[in-house]
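#lab-general

N.A. 3:47 PM
ok so I finally got the sequence cleaned up, no stray characters, all 40 residues accounted for. can someone with queue access submit it? mine expired

B.Y. 3:52 PM
send it over

N.A. 3:53 PM
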Amino acid sequence: MIIRLVKWKSGEITATMFMQMLELKKNTFYKIMKEYEEIK
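B.Y. 4:20 PM
back already:
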């Protein structure tokens, strides 16, 4: 997941592609990303 996160942050993949890879809905995806950024 970390590799995909780096690719998303760098613009190599879109948020939509990242969500599909993780099989997450939009709300869940952004909730997890917010939590990740807070603990980072």
